[in-house]
């Protein structure tokens, strides 16, 4: 008996594999770096890893979106050469149609539509925080020419932000 694989969307599935592999590798690297010590990793390294993961997740998501029709109508089944007795647990997991309870809950919680009122509330909160940050920023002076306390380096003229960062420079 010869199997016909002409109708299998191999190209569509193979587009997903490297993106998912990269994403998994990056997430594992982030997890390992955070578990390596009791303190958080360097902020810039953490941000760089986050940016890489975000771009990989975006790429994976776009690829999934481009192939959603094919993936939605593709049925998975083992071929005749698959040893079902030895890999029964793996086969059951791969062919599972029902989501795990925590996954189903996550999907249900995130499938709600965002209303215009919710977006308006977000805009209102953002405007309040912007106003508050401008008020707080107004309490500090950036034009004081006094040297930094505890600093033996001569201050560069016109760089008052460093003074603020070092001493606070409250009015």
From TrEMBL:
Compartment annotation: Nucleus
Domain of life: Eukaryota
Sample GO molecular function, one term: RNA polymerase II cis-regulatory region sequence-specific DNA binding
Keywords for this protein: Activator, Nucleus, Transcription, Transcription regulation
Record's GO cellular component terms: core mediator complex; mediator complex
Family membership: Belongs to the Mediator complex subunit 8 family.
Gene expressing this chain: MED8
BP term (GO), one: regulation of transcription by RNA polymerase II
Chief localisation class: nucleus
Species this protein is from: Ogataea parapolymorpha (strain ATCC 26012 / BCRC 20466 / JCM 22074 / NRRL Y-7560 / DL-1)
Subunit text: Component of the Mediator complex.
Known role: Component of the Mediator complex, a coactivator involved in the regulated transcription of nearly all RNA polymerase II-dependent genes. Mediator functions as a bridge to convey information from gene-specific regulatory proteins to the basal RNA polymerase II transcription machinery. Mediator is recruited to promoters by direct interactions with regulatory proteins and serves as a scaffold for the assembly of a functional preinitiation complex with RNA polymerase II and the general transcription factors.
Protein name per Swiss-Prot or TrEMBL: Mediator of RNA polymerase II transcription subunit 8
Organism taxonomic ancestry: Eukaryota, Fungi, Dikarya, Ascomycota, Saccharomycotina
